[in-house]
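## tool: complex_structure
## caller: assistant
## args:
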Amino acid sequence: MTLLASTHPFWPLFLHVLGTMTLFGAVLAALVTAAAGLRRAAFASLLVALPAWVVALGAGHWLEHDEGLSGASPTWLQLGRNVLEPGVLVLLLALAAAWWWRSSGKQAAGRATAALAGIYLVLLTVAMLAMSGKWS
Amino acid sequence: MSTAQWLLMFHVASAFCFVGGSVTAAILNGLALRAERPSEVAALLRLIRRVLPVIFVGVAGTLVFGIWLWHEQGYAIGAAWIWVSLVLWVVANALGGRGGRLQEQARVLAERLAGEGDTPSAELSAALRERTGLWLSYGAGVATLAILVLMIWKPGS
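## result:
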């Protein structure tokens, strides 16, 4: 642990990557369960996505601070910030739609859950490609 | 973008498919453990099969782009963290594959019970909670997590 802590910023990068990978997996689970018409499973999957989003965001800010990127705005960083920060509205809307679907059973709510989960998955994929490829 | 940046982008994208797909499978499996009716269990376990192509793309991509990056970035041929990661990659896939086969047996049972009245079954519950299968899945998860630690830490490089 001490060795890990004394090298380059291991913990914020590890937690950021782990958080975003878990977020990606939970949103994918929400998409496939919503597309299959499993409303309780879609809602539960989106509930898993929330703590993963918190870890990804918190560790992202920690990493920005440690790497001295707080004031910087290259394309890859800006894209990542936009998907994690204002982009969370899409995730929250998906969660609200899933809750509505679970309590009402309305098909429209199910379609909205699947569509919003799909949109957020695409946004996460674009941000992941931009950040790993350091798009300028 | 340089060749190394392209390779890193595809390597990371593959890792997202590998780990993200595994998280999806774990969530679906966890939900199946909590489901009551065999038809619900069968539906959730069937979805894991739909996610498998994502995991397979990730498994293949992490290896291909990882080895290419190893050459491109000029890491030493004897870099221990890379060799240990390769061993863990084999272990994770072997454990995950074996655990998946046991899970498939539970799905077949759930499908059968769903067609025979769809009432909660102690036999299905026991099949889903079978210790060997659960430990194989946990082992695959721990090995995957250890690969992620090594890839970010890169000890000795």
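## assistant note: Residues 38-73 of chain B form the longest helix (36 residues). The two ends of chain B are 23 Å apart (CA to CA). Handing back to user.
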